[in-house]
């Protein structure tokens, strides 16, 4: 069984919108929407990994992220620990640097069913958080 540590950035702008990207057609949980992020590499903290992943995936440099939530999720073939960081300060404008579609969506309009199931508790928390 794979054991993965994943760092994720919840990029929120001043209008209260969240930037989300779409998973590749050939990826695990293909075509689902997600908060950008990726695997924590050896020797990295969750925060360092999230900052690196946001630079690689959506071309922004995050600063002053706040840990929003941490949760664990078990799939039949893998166990993941997700570190969700709220990113409200960054440089650059997010875009699909790896060719992936991206869009801004109102925080209270996030739909859990459009995301991998491990994201559901965090989406519920975001919908209830100002």
TrEMBL record:
One of its GO terms (molecular function) is 8-oxo-7,8-dihydrodeoxyguanosine triphosphate pyrophosphatase activity. Residues 1-128 form the Nudix hydrolase domain. The keyword RNA-binding does not apply. Its cofactor is Mg(2+). Keywords: DNA damage, DNA repair, DNA replication, Hydrolase, Magnesium, Metal-binding, Mutator protein. SUPFAM superfamilies: Nudix. Its EC number is 3.6.1.55. It comes from the Bacteria. It is an enzyme of class 3 (hydrolase). It catalyses: 8-oxo-dGTP + H2O = 8-oxo-dGMP + diphosphate + H(+); 8-oxo-GTP + H2O = 8-oxo-GMP + diphosphate + H(+). The keyword Electron transport does not apply. PANTHER family: 8-OXO-DGTP DIPHOSPHATASE (PTHR47707), NUDIX HYDROLASE FAMILY PROTEIN (PTHR47707:SF1). Belongs to the Nudix hydrolase family. This is 8-oxo-dGTP diphosphatase. The gene is mutT.
């Amino acid at each position: 069984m794979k054991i993965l540590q994943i760092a994720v950035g919840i990029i929120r702008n001043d209008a209260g919108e969240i930037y989300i990207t779409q998973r590749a057609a050939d990826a695990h949980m293909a075509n689902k929407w997600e908060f950008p992020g990726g695997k924590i590499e050896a020797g990295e903290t969750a925060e360092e990994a999230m900052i690196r992943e946001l630079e690689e995936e959506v071309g922004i440099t995050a600063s002053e992220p706040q840990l929003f939530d941490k949760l664990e999720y078990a799939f039949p073939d893998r166990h993941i620990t997700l570190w969700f960081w709220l990113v409200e300060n960054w440089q650059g404008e997010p875009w699909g640097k790896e060719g992936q579609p991206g869009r801004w969506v109102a925080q209270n309009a996030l739909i859990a069913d459009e995301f991998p199931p491990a994201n559901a508790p965090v989406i519920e928390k975001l919908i209830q958080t100002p």
